[in-house]
Amino acid sequence: MIGELLYVGLPIGVAIFVEVTLFTLIALFIASLGEITVAAHQVALNYTSILFMLPLSLSMALTVRVSNVLGQGRPSYARRVAWHGIAVCLVVALINGLLLRFTAEPVIGLYTRDTEVARLALSLVLLAMIYQVSDSLQVNLAGALRGYKDTRIIMVITLASYWLVGMAGGHWLGTRGHSGLDQAPLGVHGYWIGLIGGLTAAAVMLGERLRRIGKAVAHGERDPLHP
User: Fold this and answer.
1) CA distance 173 to 38
2) Which residue, 33, 63, 139, 148, is CA-closest to 96?
């Protein structure tokens, strides 16, 4: 039993570690860009992280719901539950995007009176609006896949998307700008564009993985209790 818990749970821990270090390392990278940039980044990240709690909680509920239905021996219904959960998370993402759009300025005003920090934070929040859908999708797709005990692939996808696309790509844009073009580095905006790219890549790959796993289990081609 302990071995099975480690087999399923250890990749989950690694995936969470990769996700957390993405945001942590980006904060360290932008530390050299000055206190205004660091302050604006932290303000925008704090606010968007609060809104992320709802998609995150839905993801946890989706894991439990999918695994319960699979345990009841209803793989076709589990597939429906998973995709219905994804539909709900899309609605939540749109609501979060609207909240960011209409509440960004007053909320940022609660953090700081510095106009430079507020202006830069607002520009970052506008970028955050773009990745609301992909962020909500990737965390709920991962939640559904965990209900199928499909955790190792999540770990690999997370590692590739967050570190290679998100962190490496964001660092390139932040320090060098667009490759092959005579442009100045994008600074903190480059790192946030990298976040958008990493989250989007994760959402696309996890979505394809869920489609395949859900179909295989529903058709009896894969045992959901013994991945």
Assistant:
1) 17
2) 139
97: CB partners within 8 A, 6+ apart? 129, 132, 133
Distances (CA, A) of 111 to 132, 174, 190: 22, 25, 23
pLDDT computed for residue 176 by the predictor = 82
Is the pTM above the cut of 0.85? Answer: yes
- Other C-beta atoms lying within 10 Å of the C-beta of residue 31: 12
- Contact call for residues 205 and 161 (beta carbons, < 8 A): yes
Torsion angle in degrees (nearest 10) through CA of 75, 133, 166, 184: 160
pLDDT digit string, tens, across residues 131-183: 899 999 999 999 999 999 999 999 999 999 999 999 999 989 988 876 545 56
Q: What per-residue confidence (pLDDT) applies to 68? A: 95
What tokens does 208 get?
Answer: 């394809």
Report whether 115 contacts 41 (CB < 8 A): no
- Do 87 and 18 form a contact (C-beta atoms < 8 A)? no
